[in-house]
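Structure tokens please, single chain.
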Amino acid sequence: MSDLSAREFVADFFGSFTREVIAGGDAAAIVDRYYTPDIEQIADGVTLDRQRLIDHLRPVRKNLVFCSYDVHEAIRTGDRVAARFTIHAELRRGRTIATEVYLFGELAPDGRMRRTTQATRDVTAA
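Here you go.
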């Protein structure tokens, strides 16, 4: 897969997931469309399994108004994906934050995410 289509995959995956989360609906069904049942997502040393990921969506829905993704670099080879992107999030109380993410992931054959390891840093303008 070319770097451009890998970038598009990452932007589409996280962008559509986030739009569905914000729109509401059954959180478990949304997670199951994007992640395998045995998902293991490690972000900054914190591990989320399927249930913890579902639980994490409650505060996201409560606080997030809009989110966009700028994918700076991405590569996908077979079932592996690596990317560096920035999340721009607008929160309910008017605050805007930016978070840079370094992601390494493993995909299931159907394109759902099976494992991710992420490191993040706040890049919100002071």
